[in-house]
Amino acid sequence: MTKNINITLKIWRQKNASVKGGFETYHAANISTDMSFLEMIDVVNEQLTLDGKDPVAFDHDCREGICGMCGAVVNGRAHGPEKGTTLCQLHMRHFSDGDTIVIEPWRAKAFPIIKDIAVDRSAFDQIIIAGGYISVNVGGAPDANAIPIENG
Ligand code: FES
Description:
Elements: E1 4-13, E2 22-32, H1 37-50, E3 73-74, E4 77-78, E5 100-104, E6 113-115, E7 118-119, H2 122-129
Parallel strand pairs: 1-5
Antiparallel strand pairs: 1-2, 3-4, 3-5, 6-7
This protein binds FE2/S2 (inorganic) cluster.
FE2/S2 (inorganic) cluster is lined by residues 60-63, 65-70, 86, 88.
Protein backbone atom coordinates (compact mmCIF):
# COMPACT_ATOMS: atom_id res chain seq x y z
CA MET A 1 0.00 0.00 0.00
CA THR A 2 1.31 3.41 -0.97
CA LYS A 3 1.95 5.91 1.76
CA ASN A 4 4.01 9.02 2.17
CA ILE A 5 6.96 9.13 4.52
CA ASN A 6 9.24 11.80 5.88
CA ILE A 7 12.92 11.03 5.99
CA THR A 8 16.17 12.69 6.93
CA LEU A 9 19.08 12.37 4.54
CA LYS A 10 22.74 12.72 5.33
CA ILE A 11 24.35 13.11 1.92
CA TRP A 12 28.04 13.38 1.13
CA ARG A 13 28.70 16.69 -0.62
CA GLN A 14 32.02 17.36 -2.28
CA LYS A 15 32.69 19.81 -5.11
CA ASN A 16 35.47 17.73 -6.68
CA ALA A 17 38.29 15.30 -5.92
CA SER A 18 40.70 17.97 -4.76
CA VAL A 19 38.58 19.53 -2.01
CA LYS A 20 37.43 18.09 1.27
CA GLY A 21 33.84 16.89 1.44
CA GLY A 22 31.39 16.33 4.24
CA PHE A 23 27.89 15.22 5.07
CA GLU A 24 25.01 17.65 4.78
CA THR A 25 21.58 17.00 6.21
CA TYR A 26 18.38 17.35 4.20
CA HIS A 27 14.76 16.64 5.04
CA ALA A 28 12.64 14.94 2.43
CA ALA A 29 8.95 15.31 3.20
CA ASN A 30 5.97 13.46 1.73
CA ILE A 31 8.05 10.94 -0.17
CA SER A 32 5.81 8.30 -1.78
CA THR A 33 6.83 4.77 -0.91
CA ASP A 34 6.23 3.97 -4.61
CA MET A 35 9.14 6.20 -5.59
CA SER A 36 12.47 4.75 -6.50
CA PHE A 37 15.47 5.82 -4.47
CA LEU A 38 16.73 7.95 -7.37
CA GLU A 39 13.31 9.59 -7.77
CA MET A 40 13.52 10.49 -4.09
CA ILE A 41 16.88 12.17 -4.75
CA ASP A 42 15.26 13.93 -7.75
CA VAL A 43 12.67 15.40 -5.38
CA VAL A 44 15.41 16.60 -3.04
CA ASN A 45 17.30 18.07 -6.00
CA GLU A 46 14.20 19.90 -7.25
CA GLN A 47 13.89 21.60 -3.89
CA LEU A 48 17.61 22.40 -3.76
CA THR A 49 17.34 23.95 -7.24
CA LEU A 50 14.27 25.98 -6.24
CA ASP A 51 16.20 27.20 -3.20
CA GLY A 52 19.07 28.31 -5.47
CA LYS A 53 21.38 25.59 -4.11
CA ASP A 54 23.55 23.09 -5.93
CA PRO A 55 21.70 19.79 -6.60
CA VAL A 56 23.30 16.51 -5.54
CA ALA A 57 25.34 14.95 -8.35
CA PHE A 58 24.82 11.22 -8.76
CA ASP A 59 25.34 8.64 -11.50
CA HIS A 60 22.41 7.12 -13.34
CA ASP A 61 21.32 6.27 -16.85
CA CYS A 62 18.67 3.64 -17.64
CA ARG A 63 16.93 3.62 -14.24
CA GLU A 64 15.72 0.16 -15.16
CA GLY A 65 18.36 -1.95 -13.43
CA ILE A 66 20.14 -2.70 -16.69
CA CYS A 67 23.11 -0.43 -17.32
CA GLY A 68 24.92 -0.55 -13.98
CA MET A 69 25.53 3.19 -14.03
CA CYS A 70 23.84 4.01 -10.73
CA GLY A 71 25.43 3.30 -7.42
CA ALA A 72 26.19 4.65 -4.01
CA VAL A 73 26.70 3.41 -0.50
CA VAL A 74 23.42 3.63 1.41
CA ASN A 75 23.50 3.21 5.17
CA GLY A 76 26.91 1.59 4.82
CA ARG A 77 25.82 -0.96 2.20
CA ALA A 78 26.66 -0.89 -1.49
CA HIS A 79 23.47 -0.17 -3.46
CA GLY A 80 21.41 -0.10 -0.27
CA PRO A 81 19.61 -2.64 1.89
CA GLU A 82 18.07 -4.87 -0.79
CA LYS A 83 20.34 -7.73 -1.88
CA GLY A 84 20.86 -8.09 -5.63
CA THR A 85 19.14 -4.78 -6.34
CA THR A 86 20.58 -1.83 -8.20
CA LEU A 87 20.16 1.57 -6.59
CA CYS A 88 17.69 2.66 -9.27
CA GLN A 89 15.50 -0.37 -8.53
CA LEU A 90 15.52 0.21 -4.78
CA HIS A 91 12.17 1.66 -3.75
CA MET A 92 11.27 3.85 -0.85
CA ARG A 93 8.85 1.19 0.46
CA HIS A 94 11.94 -0.38 2.03
CA PHE A 95 12.28 2.60 4.34
CA SER A 96 10.08 3.79 7.17
CA ASP A 97 8.66 7.13 8.20
CA GLY A 98 11.22 8.97 10.31
CA ASP A 99 14.23 7.04 8.99
CA THR A 100 17.61 8.66 8.56
CA ILE A 101 19.40 7.52 5.40
CA VAL A 102 23.13 8.06 4.92
CA ILE A 103 24.18 8.30 1.26
CA GLU A 104 27.83 8.39 0.31
CA PRO A 105 30.04 7.61 -2.69
CA TRP A 106 32.23 4.56 -3.19
CA ARG A 107 35.36 4.91 -1.10
CA ALA A 108 38.16 3.55 -3.27
CA LYS A 109 41.35 5.06 -4.65
CA ALA A 110 40.47 3.59 -8.04
CA PHE A 111 37.21 5.58 -8.12
CA PRO A 112 37.99 9.19 -7.26
CA ILE A 113 35.04 11.39 -6.51
CA ILE A 114 33.95 13.58 -9.41
CA LYS A 115 31.33 15.38 -7.37
CA ASP A 116 29.13 14.43 -4.40
CA ILE A 117 28.11 10.79 -4.94
CA ALA A 118 29.36 10.55 -8.53
CA VAL A 119 32.71 8.79 -8.93
CA ASP A 120 35.10 8.35 -11.83
CA ARG A 121 34.81 4.69 -12.84
CA SER A 122 37.14 4.88 -15.81
CA ALA A 123 39.41 2.42 -13.96
CA PHE A 124 36.99 -0.23 -15.27
CA ASP A 125 37.79 0.94 -18.81
CA GLN A 126 41.48 0.29 -18.13
CA ILE A 127 40.66 -3.30 -17.18
CA ILE A 128 38.73 -3.77 -20.43
CA ILE A 129 41.48 -2.09 -22.47
CA ALA A 130 43.97 -4.50 -20.88
CA GLY A 131 41.83 -7.41 -22.09
CA GLY A 132 40.11 -8.18 -18.82
CA TYR A 133 36.67 -9.71 -18.75
CA ILE A 134 34.47 -11.90 -16.61
CA SER A 135 32.43 -14.87 -17.71
CA VAL A 136 29.02 -15.09 -16.10
CA ASN A 137 26.06 -17.06 -17.41
CA VAL A 138 23.22 -14.60 -17.06
CA GLY A 139 20.79 -16.39 -19.35
CA GLY A 140 19.07 -14.94 -22.35
CA ALA A 141 17.19 -11.66 -22.42
CA PRO A 142 13.43 -12.24 -22.65
CA ASP A 143 11.89 -11.33 -25.97
CA ALA A 144 10.03 -8.05 -25.48
CA ASN A 145 7.00 -9.41 -27.37
CA ALA A 146 6.80 -12.37 -24.99
CA ILE A 147 6.00 -10.14 -22.02
CA PRO A 148 2.21 -9.78 -21.70
CA ILE A 149 1.01 -6.22 -21.17
CA GLU A 150 -2.63 -5.61 -20.30
CA ASN A 151 -4.61 -3.06 -22.23
CA GLY A 152 -4.97 0.20 -20.29
S1 FES B 1 20.61 3.51 -13.78
FE1 FES B 1 20.98 1.77 -15.03
S2 FES B 1 21.14 0.16 -13.62
FE2 FES B 1 20.61 1.86 -12.40
